[in-house]
Amino acid sequence: MTAKDDPAAHSLFQDALLDETAKLGIVRARFEGFDKSSFDELIVGYSSTKVLTYSSSASIINRAAEEMERLEIVFGRPDILGDMASYLHFQELLLNLTTPARRENSADASSRSKRTLAPHSTGST
Fold this sequence. Notes:
Elements: H1 11-18, H2 39-43, E1 48-53, H3 58-67, E2 70-75, H4 84-98, H5 100-117
Parallel strand pairs: 1-2
């Protein structure tokens, strides 16, 4: 079976696989060494971080969230999160309901989408 025919192929790649003219960005990396450091040493001097991981540790995620002003985590596989995905979803909902700025942004976005989706009057019946 080719990648084009693979139903398990990730949607991110499907457009590029189906469109022969599309190009994927490829990053080439080289292993240069191995070091050990504490979590504090790793993040010293940073206020935000982006992480790509193939494992999850709630304690490390919580610690990083406490230390960083902005934290973005991309999990390399959907099964990594397990039940944590539900908790994160509910946390996002609660933040939207309880944080005034987020509630206003959500209401503004909802209002804009309602205006965008409202049918246009043609003046004739």
